[in-house]
Write a structure and sequence with these properties.
The chain has nine helices and ten strands. By secondary structure, it is of the alpha/beta class.
Length: 233
């Protein structure tokens, strides 16, 4: 089976099967209803939730989690907004205690302006969480050595950035992304900087397993229409 046909089928992250290769976020939408409509239009199964920034009480109508049924979506706790390994580990544990599954999207930010990752702190947190039984999907830069080390410490997926979060610049270094995919055994999901449907196509052309998007959808003039376009990219 060639790469193109393989990408049409399901794939596995940490032993769990997914059909959609698009992962979406929940931040920056004008309303919870627009968020839900956009997520449904995208066809995404996995949806990230920034546990540091949301109310974890599902009973409140204004809370994001009130509108996201775990029976409909695979909710992925996200440590967005954490700047230290200790902070990221703490919020991952909080998410699990609040009823999230064992998967966590690990983010440890190193620079407030660009939101580029602190790879040393990410590696530290990834090892701690993997040792505690979490299935870690780690946001990182497009450096092969860091990606290999994240795999070595037990991450079930590695998520190199295409370009800085929210930049919409697309894949700045396609060679690096291809090299990471070629060398890793775990899934490679490109995260951050994918701004258009054409960017998503270029990203998938690098042979990666999937793409995570948020700003491009939430900040679009018509998030639902943009999400539908991404579904078919």
């Amino acid at each position: 089976m060639d790469d193109a046909r393989a990408l049409d089928g399901p794939f596995y992250i940490g032993g769990t099967k997914f059909v959609s290769r698009l992962i979406v976020g929940t931040g920056k939408y004008e309303s919870n209803q627009i968020m839900v409509d956009a997520i449904r239009a995208s066809g995404a199964e996995m949806v990230t939730v920034a546990v540091r920034r949301v109310d974890l009480d599902r009973s409140k109508d204004e809370a994001i989690l009130h509108h996201l049924d775990p029976q409909d979506f695979f909710l992925l706790a996200n440590t967005a907004g954490c700047y230290t390994a200790d902070d990221a580990v703490r919020y991952a544990r909080l998410a699990r205690a609040a009823g999230f599954n064992e998967f966590v999207k690990l983010e440890v930010i190193g620079d407030e302006r660009t939101l580029l990752p602190d790879v040393h702190a990410t590696l530290e947190a990834a090892k701690t969480l993997a040792d505690e039984g979490f299935k870690v999907m780690a946001y990182t830069n497009d450096d092969l050595i860091t990606a290999l080390r994240l795999e070595d410490v037990g991450c079930v997926a590695v998520m190199p950035l295409a370009s800085p979060i929210g930049s919409g610049l697309g894949v700045v270094n396609p060679y690096f992304i291809r090299e990471i995919k070629a060398r890793l055994k775990v899934p490679v999901i490109v995260d951050a900087g994918v701004g258009t449907a054409s960017d998503a196509c270029v990203t998938m052309e690098q042979g990666v397993d999937g793409v995570l998007m948020n700003t491009a959808l939430a900040a679009a003039d018509d998030p639902v229409r943009m999400s539908h376009a991404m579904k078919h990219a």
